[in-house]
């Protein structure tokens, strides 16, 4: 059965649940803080606790693939179970895998994350465009075919990203600006929201030099542990703030393992986002 386009599903989720995305990042230090061992059983317990606590509350879960991959095939099995449970609870899944490669290999990544027959099938995936935006084509095509989304790294939340992303091309545009232009072209005419998003860090301050009007979602990591707050969103995103999906991982996860405390932490961030975004441009 073909599902509605990701952009439409995401807009609906944001309207009904609020836009907050909670990252599932089972850091070894968090496992320890939760009284769990740094092993597959600890990983499984941590992940199940987060999904059970927040699966009916948040719009989007963003599992960070690296924290599962570090346990090999058993870690991926935990991730597969989490995807099924999150889906059952009604949350969208954005796999944070940041894959990038030549087009022929990108086809295999598309099969991994954007093919409904794959055990790691997700609603959307993060991709790196630094082998050229065109190298992402197999994933963009698979996303359209299967009602999925793609989030392309444009302006990442870490300061080191700037040497690549703000480099200026021969045509005078920065690399990031060019990526945003590509995304706007992919999303042209889509309603209510395109399925091709950009990753734009909430840590970056005023971004008015960039045209963030890509008619697609803007994933905003960096809130919480990296120092940004929901109150920063209007300054960073300006008029595009309505399309922002604010993402928090450690800022919520550090409140576990108590489920009520996890829920309360996510609700606090959601409230702060509502306050900040609800008044933006008013
Ligand atoms: O620009 C980016 C892109 C992705 N991330 C990822 O988001 C989370 C952030 O975790 P916090 O604990 O909320 O800092 C993590 O998985 C990163 O890999 C990012 O931070 N910045």
UniProtKB/TrEMBL annotation:
It catalyses: orotidine 5'-phosphate + H(+) = UMP + CO2. InterPro entries: Aldolase_TIM, OMPdecase_AS, OMPdecase_type-2, OMPdeCOase_dom, RibuloseP-bd_barrel. GO terms for molecular function: orotidine-5'-phosphate decarboxylase activity. It comes from the Bacteria. Its EC number is 4.1.1.23. The active site is at residue 98. Keywords: Decarboxylase, Lyase, Pyrimidine biosynthesis. SMART domains: OMPdecase. Pfam families: OMPdecase. Pathway: Pyrimidine metabolism; UMP biosynthesis via de novo pathway; UMP from orotate: step 2/2. Residues 19-265 form the Orotidine 5'-phosphate decarboxylase domain. Belongs to the OMP decarboxylase family. Type 2 subfamily. This is Orotidine 5'-phosphate decarboxylase. It comes from Streptomyces halobius.
